[in-house]
């Protein structure tokens, strides 16, 4: 009998018992994600210089420190495991001005990092895919006799203009200045100046497409323009249409 009990408890749960455990685990995790999210009304232990209305940091958060020098605009979406830091380490006095600023409506995808040892500004309505890395600091390797990690790093401000899109895994290096509505291809490494309305790709990133009022996009776009949503259509009608299209596929 004792052996049977040991076999039962050491084996993996199955059937209704497994389904009950799964539902309980998923329900508990969803509850933790809800109560663990950081908002202006429920900031928890994080004391940001500014945490805008409608902004939400998903749970679990990544490494966050130097909040007194971090300003987050309104209606930002900060994904799970996103790192936001101001200063090289916690507990430093960084002066009277903000170090890291996100404008209104900024989106940082899951696992992204924004490392601001000096000024970093991300303009309003800039969207970042998962695992984007933005940093104002880079290692130096001037002394060939010292380990790179022990040499004092270099810092330069970073500025990303409004309305940009940074694809998955993009890296923005110290000193980069991106203009308005810049598209950064996935996996690109950006440094230096990027003009407004450009598409950059590669490592290091180079301009592969640009727009101006006289010639439009050059080289011309190869994909058809998206069909605009007719005026007056409500979100409820769009959802109903999506459900109808799904039913037709079945």
Topology of this structure?
Blueprint: H1 2-10, H2 15-36, E1 38-39, E2 50-51, E3 56-57, E4 64-65, E5 70-72, E6 77-78, E7 83-86, E8 100-102, E9 107-108, E10 113-116, E11 120-122, E12 127-128, E13 133-135, E14 137-138, E15 154-155, E16 158-160, E17 165-166, E18 171-172, E19 177-178, E20 183-184, E21 189-190, E22 193-194, E23 198-202, E24 205-212, E25 216-218, H3 235-249
Parallel strand pairs: 2-5, 3-6, 4-7, 5-8, 6-9, 7-10, 8-11, 9-12, 10-13, 11-16, 12-17, 13-18, 16-19, 17-20, 18-21, 19-22, 20-23
Antiparallel strand pairs: 1-3, 14-15, 23-24, 24-25
Give the averaged pLDDT, no decimals.
90
Give Rg in angstroms: 23 Å
CATH topology of the largest domain: UDP N-Acetylglucosamine Acyltransferase, domain 1
CA-CA gap between termini: 51 Å
In CATH terms, what is the architecture of the largest domain?
3 Solenoid
The first-level CATH class of the largest domain is given as: Mainly Beta
Strand content: 25-35%
- Tally of structural domains: 2
Molecular shape:
globular
Quaternary status: single chain
List keywords for this structure.
250 residues; alpha/beta; UDP N-Acetylglucosamine Acyltransferase, domain 1; 2 domains; 10-stranded mixed sheet; 7-stranded parallel sheet; 3 helices; 25 strands; 18% helix; 28% strand
Structure described in brief:
The protein has 250 residues and is an alpha/beta fold. Helices cover 18% and strands 28% of the residues.
Outline the structure in words:
- GO terms for molecular function: acyltransferase activity.
- With 250 residues, the protein is α/β, with parallel strands linked by helices.
- It has two domains: 1-36; 37-216, 3 Solenoid (UDP N-Acetylglucosamine Acyltransferase, domain 1).
- The chain has three helices and 25 strands.
- It has helices spanning 2-10, 15-36, 235-249, and strands spanning 38-39, 50-51, 56-57, 64-65, 70-72, 77-78, 83-86, 100-102, 107-108, 113-116, 120-122, 127-128, 133-135, 137-138, 154-155, 158-160, 165-166, 171-172, 177-178, 183-184, 189-190, 193-194, 198-202, 205-212, 216-218.
- A hairpin with a 3-residue loop joins β24 and β25 (216-218).
- The longest helix has 22 residues, at 15-36.
- The N and C termini lie far apart (51 Å).
């Amino acid at each position: 009998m004792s052996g049977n009990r040991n076999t039962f408890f050491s084996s993996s749960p199955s059937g209704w018992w497994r389904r009950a455990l799964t539902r309980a685990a998923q329900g508990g995790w969803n509850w933790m994600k809800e109560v663990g999210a950081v908002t202006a009304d429920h900031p928890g232990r994080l004391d940001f210089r500014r945490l805008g209305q409608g902004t939400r940091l998903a749970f679990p958060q990544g490494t966050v420190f130097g909040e007194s020098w971090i300003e987050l605009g309104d209606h930002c979406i900060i994904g799970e495991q996103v790192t936001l830091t101001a200063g090289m380490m916690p507990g430093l006095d960084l002066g009277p001005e903000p170090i890291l600023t996100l404008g209104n409506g900024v989106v940082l995808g899951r696992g992204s990092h924004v490392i601001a040892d000096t000024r970093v500004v991300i303009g309003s309505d800039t969207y970042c895919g998962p695992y984007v890395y933005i940093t104002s600091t880079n290692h130096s390797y001037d002394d060939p006799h010292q380990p790179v990690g022990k040499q004092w790093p270099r810092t330069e401000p970073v500025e990303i203009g409004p309305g940009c899109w940074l694809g998955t895994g993009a890296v923005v290096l110290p000193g980069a200045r991106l203009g308005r509505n810049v598209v950064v291809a996935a996996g690109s490494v950006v440094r230096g100046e990027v003009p407004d309305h450009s598409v950059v790709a590669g490592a290091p990133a180079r301009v592969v497409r640009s727009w101006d009022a006289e010639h439009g996009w050059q080289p011309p776009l190869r994909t058809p323009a998206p069909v605009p949503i007719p005026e007056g259509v409500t979100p409820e009608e769009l959802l109903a249409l999506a459900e109808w299209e799904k039913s037709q596929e079945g």
